[in-house]
User: What shape does this take?
Amino acid sequence: MAKAAPRDADKTRPAAPTLEAARADAAGCRRCALWKRATQTVFGFGPPRAPIVFVGEQPGDVEDREGEPFVGPAGTLLRGSLAEAGLDPADVYLTNAVKHFKWREQGKRRIHERPNREEILACRFWLEQELAAIRPRLVVALGSTAASALVGSSVRVLRDRGTVVQSPLAGPVLITVHPSSILRAPDSAERRRARQAFVDDLRAIARHGLK
Ligand code: URA
Assistant: This one.
């Protein structure tokens, strides 16, 4: 089977832009249809030279309204876990693989829907711009959408969690679960266990000397 060309040879890969220029361009993004039902583009947030970039799936309902990633329940869990793992928020930039909220209506509620492959691929343009501008030492993939955007479909989150894999797009990528999966645990004992396993994964950042 022919080998895929390395991403560095990809002419569509953007030259390093500034984060602010990328943010301004992304505000008017029409690369897929998700913008039509979303309130706004939710671009990444954090220090422009952060050594660690966390990539989630897509903004949720709260993030869509507020325009900032990880400010809802999953974000609260993530921030608490970062603190427990000894990570300084000043070292962390938070973003998502997809930058518009995808949802369906259920009564009065907006229910999260997983982005599809085309939407993830379309939005990778912005993730590449963020990574090219920030040049982090480590990227953390939160869940399977982020892992497949960064590394490809060979990653299995439950099999590979806590390990660092190489991504042609992002360099070293630590694989772990999405914080929302912890919130969905069936009871509080399972939730505590899942949260502890997540914090242990994050502690690998210090173990790998990447903090
Ligand atoms: N889930 C995500 O993946 N990202 C957010 O910003 C919020 C919830």
User: Anything to note?
Assistant: The radius of gyration is 16 Å.
